[in-house]
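Tokens as discussed.
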């Protein structure tokens, strides 16, 4: 299960560390601070891709490295990473065989797409088992056994392999991007790009360039052609978060893209066809905004073909024990803390809290508690926001988890039996268990299997 090997040659150690951290989950990163050291590394190990700076201080520069590789007929994709965006430098690098040229403050999503395309063109194929694991890692987990979460899972299963646009609604922190990723990575587009874009974070004057790209010379500092998010997401999915913040003029342009399925770069004359699935998300009521003339009605109906609503955490409290278990494990590993459990009183406090920040707030609260913890158990004192009174009838963590599982089973099993037209054997087969196992579950839940 090998990851692609990338050699980063740059005289800025901090930049190497930052880039390695960003790419490290998907690529095995190696580094060198001089051209000579980079060539020595290339002589000892086979790499799948080279990220190369032009200005390497004293000694060989990036062009010298490229010349030597050409002389030795060492062939691998080379991506130039440099502060120097001058046209002569860019042209010279591309003429010498560079696959692409990016700046020192790259867009991570764009970098990943460029790296993947470069390696695909050079014949690199990822190990299939690693790739599946990586897709699962990127998509995140939709944690919960509540009826609401099970309904969302069913909706994802229905919509995943269609090209239909999806509108995800829910309060901040409920996990809208996780649902979007689940849709993408459950679909036939799973091995194509998933490109997220926060509509509220892009200045109005840059939005068109960000979405559709621009040609060289389209405006000041447009030193080279830049692909927009739609081209980067071609044959994949674009996730437009906080879509309610989108300027009306851009709503009109996006509406045209949805209808015509093509884009035009800023400063360009040609139209390019794109095959992109759009998933949008918002914590606003767009129908109310449409009624108030704050959001285009035609654009709203184009987005809202298949709506998915995520309920706030306070309306699915039975999911809290499972989420806490996950976050304790994740944060313990990240922070190198051996946390094994949460106390009964602390869990009771979490179950009674209203969670205005939803799952994100719960995750942050657990992380803070893990940092403060002095032993292996999370205690009420580590949750300063909560009131965690001692319980006369304390709620044991494992009991709460078992209750959540039972609630899930009581909702899920009848649905499966109904889908199987009442046939217990068929329902068991669809669930991946034996008929006897399903009958035992029904008996334990006090449900009739006849």
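Sequence:
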């Amino acid at each position: 299960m090998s990851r692609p090997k990338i050699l980063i040659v740059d005289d800025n150690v901090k930049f190497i560390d930052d880039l390695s951290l960003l790419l490290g989950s998907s690529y095995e990163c190696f580094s060198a601070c001089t051209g000579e050291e980079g060539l020595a590394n290339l002589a000892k190990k086979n790499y799948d891709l080279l990220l190369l700076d032009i200005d390497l201080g004293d000694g060989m520069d990036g062009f010298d490295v490229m010349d030597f590789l050409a002389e030795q007929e060492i062939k691998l994709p080379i991506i130039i990473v440099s502060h120097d965006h001058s046209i002569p430098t860019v042209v010279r690098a591309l003429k010498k065989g560079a696959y692409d040229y990016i700046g020192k403050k790259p867009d991570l999503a764009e970098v990943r797409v460029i790296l993947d395309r470069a390696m695909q063109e050079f014949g690199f194929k990822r190990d299939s088992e690693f790739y599946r694991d990586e897709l699962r890692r990127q998509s995140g987990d939709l944690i919960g056994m509540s009826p609401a979460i099970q309904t969302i899972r069913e909706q994802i299963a229905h919509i995943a392999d269609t090209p239909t646009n999806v509108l995800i609604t829910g309060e901040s922190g409920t996990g809208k991007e996780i649902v979007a990723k689940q849709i993408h990575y459950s679909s036939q587009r799973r091995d194509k790009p998933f490109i997220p874009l926060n509509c509220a974070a892009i200045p109005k004057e840059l939005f068109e360039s960000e979405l559709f790209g621009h040609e060289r010379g389209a405006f000041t500092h447009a030193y080279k052609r830049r692909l927009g998010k739609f081209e980067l997401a071609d044959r994949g999915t674009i996730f437009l978060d906080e879509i309610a913040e989108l300027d009306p003029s851009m709503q009109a342009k996006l509406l045209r893209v949805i209808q015509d399925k093509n884009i035009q770069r800023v400063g360009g004359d040609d139209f390019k066809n794109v095959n992109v699935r759009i998933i949008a998300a918002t914590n606003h009521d767009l129908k109310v905004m449409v009624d108030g003339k704050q959001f285009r009605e035609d654009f709203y109906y184009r987005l809202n073909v298949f709506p998915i609503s995520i309920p706030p955490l306070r309306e699915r409290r039975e999911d809290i024990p499972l989420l806490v278990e996950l976050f304790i494990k994740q944060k313990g590993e990240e922070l190198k803390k051996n946390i094994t459990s949460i106390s009964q009183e602390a869990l009771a406090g979490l179950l009674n809290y209203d969670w205005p920040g939803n799952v994100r707030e719960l995750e942050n609260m657990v992380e803070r508690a893990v940092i403060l913890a002095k032993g292996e158990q999370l205690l009420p004192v580590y949750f300063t926001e909560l009131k965690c009174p001692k319980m006369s009838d304390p709620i044991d963590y494992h009991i709460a988890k078992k209750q959540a599982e039972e609630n899930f089973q009581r909702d899920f099993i009848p649905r499966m039996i109904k889908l199987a037209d009442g046939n217990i054997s068929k329902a068991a087969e669809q669930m991946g268990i034996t008929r006897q196992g399903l009958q035992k579950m029904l008996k334990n839940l006090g449900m009739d299997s006849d």
